[in-house]
Model the fold of this input.
Amino acid sequence: MKAVDFFYLLKPLIPRRMQIGIRRRRALIKRKRNPGKWPIDPIAGRVPNDWPGWPEGKGFALVLIHDVDTAKGLGNCLKLMELERDLGFVSSFNFVPKGYHLPDTTRRKITESGFEIGVHGLTHEGRAFKNYRTFSQLVPRINEFLKEWNAAGYTSPSMLGNLRWVADLNVAYGCSSFDTDPFEPRPYGVGTIFPFIVPNLAKDKSYVELPYTLPQDHSMFVLLQERDNSIWKRKVDWIAETGGMALLNTHPDYISFAGNKHALEEYPADNYFSLLEYVNGRYKDRYWHALPRDVAHFWKTTFPMDAAYSYDGTSISASNRVASLSHGNKYFRKVKLALTCSSGGHFEQMQNLYQFYQEFPRFWIVNKTPQTEYSLSSESRHFINGAHFRKPWTYVVQAPRVYGILRRERPTHIISTGPGMIGFIPFLLSRLLKIKFIHIETFSHVNHLTKMGKFIRMFRHPIFSQWDGVELKNVLSIGTAISNSLPVMQEKRSEDIVFVALGMREHAFPRIIEAVESLIKEKVIEGKVVIQMGFTKYQTELAETFDFCTPAEINRLITSSKYVITQESAGIVTKCLRLGKKFIVMPRDYEYKELPTKSDMNEDLHYKLAELGFTFVVHDKEQLKEAIGKIGQLKTDFRFDNSRAIAILKSMVESG
Ligand SMILES: [Zn+2]
Done:
């Protein structure tokens, strides 16, 4: 049985006071375990791409909602509403349709006062949302209440369930997630203080998810026993600074209007109202205060549906599969991660999973390059030499070294983004030493597995893919590992160079330079040309050339370019996509000895991207010429979102 289900099964048998006592202890431990992550997770402050700002030029947004869990809470609603209105605020009240009787008069009073009504579950029981099938059966009934109440929003009881299921409902928005909250039964934050669009599993409907961004009242005042609302204020200050959305979900069930005399699970109403006064006093006229449905409307009109495209690329069956793999929350488990990959694109993909691994003790096993040395200077790391399957003895040399590291560090999980030159040996040793091994296929493989993926699959070991394309048993899509919102250098530069990248492969690739050179002569390529040559030795007067540089320098070159011509390189391609830069891919060809083996030609990312309209793949000078001629047709709005990958990895690691 899953831990969450178990809890709900036993819950009625445990006296409430004892439940609270247990949860208080757990909350304190969780708080200690999450420094630098709660109440503020700095990463959650990243601004969405193409962010135009809030309406009326306001600096941040303020949204107030109330989940009304019980009849007791219902009794407090009108009073709460009137006090809010007196202070000049509006809010929404989310009622449980099958939880208690909601009089029509109450509903009408709320909506007629310019407040909003939403639906909070069907019953308030968490088990109803335990799987997609159960939830699907409830959808028509929840939709009936949404219609009857003229409601646009839905919130999940106890933040259970799944955002993509919610998208099956007839809703404009939902609030069933949070930026960071280790105290929830499933502590997987979405890592943003901005709304985002969620498509349903069939991808024919979507809604705007509004994560709550101020800690829950129950966690703050009942579990952590905070005496005042200074945590709320601190978080509001931070949100005001970053320009996100302050969304506070308070429960009338726990609010006491009896001053400081309050019961076990209550807190003084003043904790809430003094926050409103604080916001109004300190930030007067600087925030956009709106009802959740107005925020949803604004968001949907600002960001069209395709913004949601890469939220998740998984199918229903894959999703169920993942859910069953990842269920349960053992937040107390001692986790230690070994992060293993080679430098370059594999390394960058791992780094993009920062929000996942930063929560756990960890160390790295990587090969030593300027990139890994520099980026990991403040991390615990072990350098090993990469091996190659053509030189089997290189693995024999690697094995005792990796074995020594694993014995000393004793990780609970090894996370790999490949490739085999670094990952094979850790995988084999993980079986010997009984360490969990999680392999994520690289972004560059769309329709088939890497050598490492194929190898691991021979052991029937599950594999995560970043695309939908591989339809094999034990291969699950988790969406991209790469995040669009990691800070990339966005400074505006004059876009006047053409940047040509040959990467770091040891085989020479003069064909691409010859093609570029002759197109410069033909004046097809105009302006300054900068070529990163790597290991290719080639003399040309027509371009500025250099061999290698830092990743930051590559970013700068891409940013400064009109367009980029590159070998097939997930690293460069990803940077171009993230920086919204047009690029043409000229793959290396084994026939010309530009690659060590034929199987190295397996990367199909650029073909997938060509199919999606983000690049042209060319094989010779003539094709390159043609591609440059129609470069204006390329799209530049690719979106990455790794929230699903992060949630799945976290839950897998936490559930053992
Ligand atoms: Zn609730």
Notes: Residues 67, 69, 120, 124, 157 surround zinc ion (CB under 6 Å).
